[in-house]
Specification:
Layout: E1 4-6, H1 16-22, E2 31-33, H2 51-62, H3 68-78, E3 91-94, E4 97-101, H4 111-115, H5 118-129, E5 134-140, H6 144-153, E6 159-166, H7 172-179, E7 186-191, H8 195-207, H9 209-217, E8 220-224, H10 230-249, E9 259-264, H11 269-280, E10 284-291, H12 296-303, E11 305-307, H13 328-336, H14 338-351, E12 353-355, H15 358-362, E13 367-371, H16 374-388, H17 394-405, H18 407-412, H19 416-419, E14 429-433, H20 441-448, H21 456-467, E15 488-489, H22 494-502
Parallel strand pairs: 4-14, 5-6, 5-8, 6-7, 7-15, 9-10, 9-14, 10-13
Antiparallel strand pairs: 1-2, 3-4, 11-12
Helix pairs in contact: 1-5, 2-3, 2-10, 10-11, 13-14, 16-17, 16-20, 20-21
């Protein structure tokens, strides 16, 4: 049975159920499977599987302490008619390449893929392990995680969900989605600071032994819905496997053909799930890490230096405005082992940066990287919409540019940002689409030269008028819903916000 261990070493070994409940390893490392399993069924025998079939198989492969029935129940309850697309993660051919749309869940962004199932995994895990505590879920969000976590956990018995978002760092629509959330167990706070500060605040609360012990005495455990939880990471592996199978089923590629995958990346969770899928045996070529102007990951993959001491930019792809990508630690563990992770993370903490050796860089060869400025992002949206009548959100546009427009450079390993945009032969690319264009309507209006109107809600209507693309249900009539959460606090007040609710 696969057990989960810490990226920073130590003797702790957890079942997946324990890992899902606990969130982080006890020594502040991230939990990783001790080795990579292989899929128990051959890809050619899975070609006609439904999304749910694939999810059950993939999750059963990683969560071996769950029974088949337990996994099946979680999957069937999560991936049902709350998704507006019957096949959950529809895949479209756009030109010679492909887009997988992961935004047909309730909140219109890809976080729904994992956060619709995490509450079921967590409550099943509690039952399995005989744990009777109440779980307080703490989540820092750059915009999309928060709402998806709130939707997932609202009114789930024995849970309280706390969401912290940068007050000035999310779009108006994202903010409204969160502050209108219903459910007596939901708690939402705007933070006077950026995403990294909110995330640091959550990490500090987790590291606070005294607080944890006190809460423990009142029967409360802390856990996380951030992408550091294996209960988020593993469900994401499923859509990569599914995508490959559907490309084969439709005859768009032949079985065994290599496909590059381009992923709009922030906290490195989504692309890491693609790496896990590749390790399960899915024939992916390059995993292309697409960043915005906060291009810390691009620099790392290109040069081996990870430097978080840099200016932080608020961009038109806010869910990728991140300087410390938590899940990268998992990749570092898989490539270099726990001892080296310990060194690199100590460097990051002390100096705000770390550098790997050139020999270590060779092991990064599954990855490529590119980044786009805000202007390039808008240009890409406009060009694809006019040329192919396909509408991308700002995040996905960056991945499209990296994976399709800059394809030849990626194949040849040249520096894409200098040479980009040559010709388009080469390996086909699967672009991972992470949000509905309507989540970022103002930017889309700018890209298409449509009048934005006076706020995000008008922009949504104007975008609809200009393109006729359907507005997702979760975003319709948003401005008419009552606001239920109004707290704005300093990062230093996060600890108290929890005590206040949990001790009440
Ligand atoms: C969260 C998010 C991302 C980044 O995903 P990571 O797993 O953090 O790399 C990209 N695009 C959108 C729209 C998101 O919500």
């Amino acid at each position: 049975m696969i057990e989960y261990i810490s990226t920073r070493g130590g003797a702790e070994r957890l079942t997946s159920a324990q890992g899902i409940i606990q969130g982080l390893a006890s020594n502040s490392g991230l939990l990783v499977p001790e080795n990579f399993p292989k899929l128990p069924v051959r890809l050619e025998d899975m070609v006609e599987y439904s999304y749910q079939d694939v999810a059950k198989l993939v999750m059963g492969t990683f969560f071996q302490d769950f029974t088949k029935e337990e996994i099946a129940q979680c999957v069937d309850r999560a991936y049902d008619s709350k998704f507006e697309a019957e096949d959950i993660a529809p895949i479209t051919k756009v030109g010679d390449d492909f887009v997988m749309e992961l935004y047909h869940g309730r909140t219109a962004a890809f976080k729904d893929m994992a956060l619709s199932i995490l509450p079921y995994l967590l409550t099943t895990a509690l039952k399995k392990t005989g744990d009777t505590s109440k779980v307080a879920i703490l989540t820092a969000t750059s915009g999309d995680t928060g709402k998806a976590a709130l939707e997932g956990f609202a009114n789930v018995p024995r849970t309280e969900i706390f969401v912290y978002y940068p007050k000035e760092g999310v779009s108006q629509v994202q903010e409204r989605q969160m502050v209108c959330q219903e459910g007596a167990n939901t708690h939402v706070y705007g933070i006077k600071g950026n995403f990294d500060e909110a995330q640091r605040g959550v990490k500090e609360i987790f590291a606070d032994k005294t607080l944890r012990e006190e809460l423990g005495k009142s029967g409360v455990r802390l856990s996380s819905a951030n992408s550091i939880n294996i209960g988020r990471l593993v469900p994401q592996v499923a859509y990569y496997v599914y995508a490959y199978l559907k490309l084969v089923e439709r005859g768009w590629i032949s079985l065994g053909e290599k496909v590059n995958v381009s992923v709009p990346t922030g906290n490195f969770g989504n692309i890491l799930a693609g790496y896990y899928a590749k390790n399960l045996g899915v024939p992916f070529g390059k995993l292309i890490c697409a960043s915005n102007k906060n291009n810390v990951l691009w620099e790392f993959i290109k040069t081996g230096r990870y430097n978080a001491k840099r200016e932080f930019y608020q961009t038109n792809s806010p869910s990728m405005d991140i300087l410390v990508s938590s899940n990268l630690e998992r990749l570092l563990y898989h490539l270099y082992g726990s001892e080296r992770v310990g060194e690199l993370m100590a460097d990051l903490e002390q100096n705000g940066e770390f550098t790997i050796t050139s020999k270590e860089m060779e092991k990064l060869s599954d990855f490529e990287a590119s980044f786009a400025t805000e202007e390039e992002t808008l240009e890409t949206i406009e060009k694809l919409y006019r040329g192919k009548d396909y509408l991308l959100d700002t995040h996905t546009a960056i991945a499209w540019r990296a994976g399709v427009e800059e394809k030849l450079d990626i194949d040849q390993g040249t520096n894409v940002h200098e040479h980009g945009n040559r010709n388009k032969k080469g390996v086909k690319t699967l672009v991972v689409s992470t949000a509905s264009p309507y989540k970022f309507s103002e930017s889309l209006c700018v890209a298409l030269g449509t009048n934005q109107g006076k706020n995000g809600f008008e922009a949504m209507k104007n975008l609809h008028q200009a393109t006729g693309v359907k507005i997702p249900q979760g975003l319709e009539n948003l401005e008419e819903r009552p606001i239920r959460h109004t707290d704005v606090i300093e990062p230093s007040g996060m600890r108290y916000s929890i005590i206040e609710v949990l001790k009440a």
